[in-house]
Amino acid sequence: MADTARRRRPRYRLVTLPTAVLTLGGLAACSGTPGSERATEPVTRAQAEARTGALQHRIVEAFPAGSVTEENARRWVLLSCSQDQVQTAGGVHVTLAGSVDVDETYDAIVHAVEPDGYSGARDTTPKGAARLTVTGPDDDQYLVTIYREDGDARISSFSPCFPGSLADG
Fold it and tell me: What per-residue confidence (pLDDT) applies to 163?
């Protein structure tokens, strides 16, 4: 007997790149670091924003002396980590007085935050700019990009996950 039945092909849902990046970033930030007691400590939205904002400021302070002329923080927003957890996302736009050595600045940032359990990894943005990703012991994350041609830098920040929902907004 010949098999004339057609096999059904599974249907895949197309996920856009921005959705995938936010989802993966959120999942990475909510995964919890094994062995870290702080990773399981519940925090409030206000605490998460204060902690994340404080580290953003420390990152800016690690830029070469006199290189930062203006620092503009973005409004915090909530992102979903899971059905009952959220994280805050924010950032800072930094205006620079002139060009800075990107590698030296990234080294200084990592050196400034390593004593508190943060680590840094470098990659390149889709537009070719060097980017530093700083990850904390509570899985908070900071994406630092210095744009040579614009004379500015951007820091995108993601707090650890905490109990809540997007409706808390």
Answer: 92
Residue 59 is assigned to a structural domain of this protein: yes
Domain that holds residue 55: 43-168
Per-residue pLDDT tens over the stretch 19-60: 334 434 444 444 443 333 344 466 899 999 999 999 999 999
Domain count, the chain: 1
pTM for the predicted model, two decimal places? 0.75
Q: Does the residue 32 lie in any domain?
A: no
Mean pLDDT within 93-101:
92
Concatenate the DSSP letters of all residues of the chain into one string: ----PPPPPPP-----HHHHHHHHHHHHHHS--TT-SGGG----HHHHHHHHHHHHHHHHHTSPTT-EEEEEEPPPEEEEEETTEEEEEEEEEEEESS---HHHHHHHHHHHHGGGT-EEEEEE-TTS-EEEEEE-TTS-EEEEEEETTTTEEEEEEEPPPEE--GGG-
Tokens 């951007």: give the residue. 154
